[in-house]
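User: My advisor asked me to double-check a structure prediction for Protein kinase domain-containing protein before group meeting. I don't want to rely on an old file, so could you generate it fresh from this sequence?
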Amino acid sequence: MTIVGKVLSGDAEYTKAADVYSFGIIAYEMITSFPPYSDIPHDSDLALKICNGLRPKIPFHTPKLITRMIMRCWDARVTHRPTSKELKNESWKYLRDYHNDKDSEIGIQIENSEKLSKNLGLINSKTSTPHNYQTHPQAIYTSRLLNFPKLPKPKNEENFKRILEELTKPTSALSILKIKKKKNINILFYLVASKLHVPDF
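Assistant: Sure, here is a fresh prediction for Protein kinase domain-containing protein from the sequence you gave:
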């Protein structure tokens, strides 16, 4: 269930905007070390909930700049999603800012993230997922045909727009949102920013 609602319903072809949605899912996996919707069945009921605005829960300790980037990828309003070029440029900017200026917005957020993660015991050098982590037997991540007819038109969750607006505010105006591991976010930035010849769509 890493694809957007219109594709789940079989009413639309897989588009570049759907690729952006899937990128948001991949980014979520990188910062959480968990696949999306791992604790529930991947069935028509989940497809319906996704169309009605359900999205994976991004941990509260994720830097708000990264949370905002991922949420924009998941926007049900296709024209509001970032393009691949925008994602690349945004990732390069965060990567440069983090390495060149620890007092930058992203630098402050990641620093506070690491502190909170350490205090909460979220950082484990040996494993990135809990020992009791289990996937629901009907949570399927292998390729298969998905065609759930009569799904509603995809829409955002009721508070989606408000949350995006809050995430735009500078760090000083909000409580810091944190991320689990610095290396994971660095990998995410690098993977996106290092892609060459990314078309602007």
